Amino acid sequence: MFINFLLVGIGAGLGAMLRYGISILIKSKWKTNFPYATFFINITGSFLLGFLVSSAVGPVWQLLLGTGFMGGYTTFSTFKVESMELKWKANFRVLFSYLGLSYVLGLIAAFTGIMIGL
């Protein structure tokens, strides 16, 4: 049982570090109102998790990569906070673009990942 917690913790730490690195890189390249870093992370995370769950990986890899890494990599809470910030700034064009594209492309990415993983 302890090994499962360890696998999830290691995966989550690695996923969070990658998310942080990607965020720094994207934010340094594109200074814009649209939250490209979180958008990119969540879309790629949807694809990767879709691929992972449809692949024939064992339960150890599911814990390490699925629950751990992807849980640390993707960021639903940041997505929601950034959405609220856009609302508070009355930047409704960017807000609705962010919400719509995140949901639609997230579903497409997850579906594509699942289909490739089969």
UniProtKB/TrEMBL annotation:
TM spans, by residue? 6-22, 34-54, 60-79, 91-116
GO MF annotations for this entry?
fluoride channel activity; metal ion binding
A Gene Ontology cellular component where this protein is annotated is:
plasma membrane
Catalyzed chemical reaction(s): fluoride(in) = fluoride(out)
Compartment(s): Cell membrane
Which InterPro entries does the record associate with it? Answer: FluC
Sorted UniProt keywords: Cell membrane, Ion channel, Ion transport, Membrane, Metal-binding, Sodium, Transmembrane, Transmembrane helix, Transport
Which Pfam families does this UniProt record tie to the protein?
A: CRCB (PF02537)
User: Which processes are annotated in GO (biological process)?
Assistant: cellular detoxification of fluoride
User: Which annotated residues bind Na(+)?
Assistant: 71, 74
Top-level taxon: Bacteria
Q: How does it sit in the membrane?
A: Multi-pass membrane protein
Q: Which NCBIfam families match?
A: crcB, PRK14205.1, PRK14214.1
PANTHER family per UniProt: FLUORIDE EXPORT PROTEIN 1-RELATED, FLUORIDE-SPECIFIC ION CHANNEL FLUC 2
Family statement drawn from the similarity comment of this UniProt entry: Belongs to the fluoride channel Fluc/FEX (TC 1.A.43) family.
Tell me the function of this protein.
Answer: Fluoride-specific ion channel. Important for reducing fluoride concentration in the cell, thus reducing its toxicity.
Please state what the protein is called: Fluoride-specific ion channel FluC
